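Budget justification aside, the reviewers requested a transparent look at the raw inputs and outputs of the sequence design task funded under Objective 1. We therefore reproduce one unedited record. The lines immediately below are the structure tokens for a 42-residue chain.
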């Protein structure tokens, strides 16, 4: 299957930075329910 056939996918552009922020304790517990995401594009 290629990416065009997938239901969900992320298309990253050619510029910018994607950041995922998570509390250290949540990461240790593998609890990804409170992740903060930020995308800076130039």
């Amino acid at each position: 299957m290629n990416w065009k056939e997938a239901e969900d996918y992320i298309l990253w552009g050619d510029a910018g930075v994607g950041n995922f922020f998570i509390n250290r304790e949540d990461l240790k517990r593998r609890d990804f329910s409170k992740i903060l995401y930020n995308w800076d594009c130039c």
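The CA atoms of residues 7 and 33 lie 21 Å apart. Helices lie at 24-28. Computational costs for records of this kind are itemized in the attached budget.
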